[in-house]
Design brief:
The chain is α+β, with helices and mostly antiparallel strands. It has a single domain, classed as Cyclic phosphodiesterase (Cyclic Phosphodiesterase, Chain: A, Alpha-Beta Complex), CATH 3.90.1140. About 25% of the residues lie in helices and about 35% in strands. The strands form two sheets. A five-stranded antiparallel sheet has the order 2-6-5-4-7, sandwiched between helices. A four-stranded antiparallel sheet has the order 3-1-8-9, with helices on one face. The longest helix has 14 residues.
Length: about 190
């Protein structure tokens, strides 16, 4: 079972991002656009695991306060010249990074690998290629996002609003021809 921990979006923010995606999708028709229903902020990618109940127990013991999160701006990584991912920026209070650290620490005793990169919250809107965030030796100029980049340069950075997350979730990810399908398995309150 492929698992990850994440924060879901409030519906008004999801709807604003959906309208934005509908407005810009035509500028990058060759990339894979994420389903708006599956937008989330990943706290920890767990990967393949058969320890569902142990993971649920570890996550249920996490004590953390709600976190305020703003969604604004958009960009590309690993670089604007060699983009593989189109994202919306996430700005949050210190509680979001602390929650990600607590999730990471809680799962270490179960053998879940520690993340090498620093926690950098974002919302992925579209992918071209692997979707890996760091530069790779195979990176070259990628023109699939070029028209979208040109159009975004003409408008102010988008602002989709602010929400307070009162819970996070354990998700299951299943691959499908049209893209991954995410299912919420368990919610954990932030208080």
């Amino acid at each position: 079972m492929r698992l990850f921990a994440a924060i879901d979006l409030d519906d008004p923010i999801r709807q604003r991002i959906l309208r934005f995606m509908e407005g810009v999708r035509g500028f990058a028709p060759e990339v894979r656009w994420v389903s708006p229903a599956s937008l989330h902020i990943t706290l920890k990618f767990i990967g393949e695991s058969n320890q569902l109940e142990a993971i649920r127990e570890k996550l249920s013991n996490i004590q953390a306060p709600p976190t305020q999160i703003s969604f604004r701006g958009a960009g590309f990584f690993p670089t604007a010249r060699s983009p593989r991912v189109f994202w919306v920026g996430v700005e949050a209070d210190k509680h979001l990074a602390e929650l990600a650290q607590k999730v990471e620490k809680a799962l270490l005793p179960l053998g879940v690998e520690k993340e090498e990169r620093a926690f950098t919250p974002h919302l992925t809107l579209a992918r071209s290629g692997s979707g890996a965030p760091s530069r790779q030796s195979s990176d070259g100029q990628n023109k699939k996002f070029q028209h979208l980049q040109e159009q975004l340069a003409k408008i102010p950075p988008p602002d989709f609003g602010t929400m307070t997350a009162h819970q996070f979730f354990l998700y299951q990810s299943k691959t499908a021809p049209a893209g991954a399908v995410y299912t919420k398995l368990t919610g954990f309150e932030l208080q």
